[in-house]
Fold:
Amino acid sequence: MTGAAQSSDVRPGGADYFRNLPELNDFLEVVDERHYHDVPDDWLVVITDVRGSTQAIEGGRYKDVNAVGAAGIIALRNALPHVELPFVFGGDGATILVPGRHCDDAAAVLRGLRRLAHEVFELELRCGMVPVRELRESGGQVRVARYRTSPHVAFAMFMGAGFSLAESWIKDEARGGRYAIAEGVEVPADLEGFECRWRPVRSTRGTMVSLLVQALGASPQEKAKRYRSLLEGLTAVLGDGAGMPVARTALKMQGLFGDFSVEARIKTGSADGPAYDRAVAFARRRTVIGQMLVMSGQSAGGFDGKSYPLQFIANCDFRKFDETLRMVIDVNESQLEQLTQLLEAARSRGMAVYGLHASKQALVTCFVRSYDGDHIHFVDGSDGGYALAAKQLKHQLAPS
Structure:
């Protein structure tokens, strides 16, 4: 059955639920609750995260952590191609909404991914899922908005206490692991479309900042007002382009002797052997061809060397909201100073807490279904990015 034939499920909570939501085009609006819609009760909040990610990153393994973090999104979207799954990528993991009737399929795929993470990357991937109905019955709202970034891509934005509640339940061992995905039927994760063929993107302004901001407030309405004020302040500091971290001049593909090991391990589920060697050779060959097409502006094999880099930039997942503002932004020295002053002022007044990690470049992990528009690029700061920003945010949240 073709994708077109499958995309007619318009029942409440059906396959087309997220696809049919009204769209936002202004990022300032992502903190306005009026644009959010209740996720159907029979859906699931699925959460994946790499245990011990901070230690792994501090050991220089941030590329591995990012790859495994993005792989959960790719594996589930490949497993359920007829459903447009809302997700938010968090660097060392992801939050994904899945229709409840696909619970068993999703669990089997995530078990396979968990095994791959352990056996090939030596990382422990925590996976869990919580029914939206149970979260709502416990007072945790689960809402989603659709934000369009380009003609080809729309990203999900999440609102509601249900997401943090789901995370706490999954991590709560006192609950007996009720929401953790237990051992059972396992399916090898299909990670077709995962690509890691671009060099880290160097800052063109001076500093690549991975930023997390959480507004504080006694009520959802108060928090929403503070988010709006903070986002307006950030936008004023960043100016035109709002800190877009990927500049066309900085976008460069790996060279002939680039490192394609992460992609090969993800694609083959092995760290050596004939299949791994073939995957490395394939990625290298396709990258060299792509590089030539980009440099010449020509097209071949469905890849348009002139338009693809522009689509790449437009399809970057560099800012999002899931009860936390998450951004990877490229800033100059003055902007970084203003940004820090703005955030410190908000923290001192009890309006917000934040985490900020600065580096010289950003890491991009790609999910390519088609070189003609249908591709997404997950952006995180290098050397730790979101994960190390989260460490600072948690420190600010800790009781003094």
Observations:
- The radius of gyration is 20 Å.
- The mean pLDDT is 91.
- The domain at 3-192 is CATH 3.30.70 (Alpha-Beta Plaits).
